Hints:
globular, alpha+beta, four-stranded antiparallel beta sheet
Amino acid sequence: MGPKSNVTNRDAFRSLLPGLLVAHRGEYALVSNGKMAGAFRSVKEAVISAQSRFPDQPYAIYPITDVLDRGSARETTRTV
């Protein structure tokens, strides 16, 4: 797993963003394997959840905002 996983996560997030803006604006989305894994009030909460739920899998955390800023995402690739 590598950069392709992050592209899949990014694409999944972008497709979900309109609905997420309605329900979770200002929170952080946790995405793994191209699926939404949760919305969190802080990056710290999202990281803790990701590390416990996906210890050996890539995941990404995106701020749920109107602006898609590539530098604002936390994308993590883990190799097993």
